[in-house]
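Q: what does this look like with heme C bound?
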Amino acid sequence: MMRVDMRNVCIAFAAAAGLALTAQELPEGAGKAETEKLCKQCHEMARSVSKRQDREGWIATMDKMKAFGMRSTDAEYAAVVAFLTKNYPADAVGKVNVNTATAIELESGLSLRRSQAAAVIAYRKENGPFKSIDDLKKIPVLEGAKLDDKKDRIAF
Ligand code: HEC
């Protein structure tokens, strides 16, 4: 005869629910296994993926973790950087699309002067959409606008 012990069922259920709350599920994909291997050795996974940043940012984080003593092969390192960059990218929110933004969006979003924002709009009217930072750099009045520092905030 089999009797289900409700008390044990409850404990098992509570334990599973608790686990679900603390364990950070990573998205499937290339590099997941390597990330699980490396990034929960010293702290919980949730901390590892607490950031949203571009590839440069993830490389900086990885190098910081290496300085803390993280060991990895070159292949693991590359796989983790790719995984984190793909799944935890810099927030797209807050980006300014230089091909569609209004003058005010260009001014406030990219800290441009009014004359610079106007030049961006005039340029794209005349030459068509910008494809890269290099296209933007063709606008003389944008000199000194520190476009390279703002590249994470610029979309095309
Ligand atoms: C050898 C131990 C170790 C390993 C392995 C490790 N970390 Fe860390 N990590 C630390 C320590 C120590 C801190 C806390 C120091 C701090 O907050 O400044 C930390 C903090 C962090 C933080 C928050 C602070 C910050 O610098 O942004 C992030 C994000 C992070 N780790 C990501 C990762 C990722 C991603 C991995 C896997 C590639 C990883 N860690 C693997 C030791 C490690």
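Strands lie at 96-97, 154-155. Residues 14-22 have pLDDT under 50 and may be disordered.
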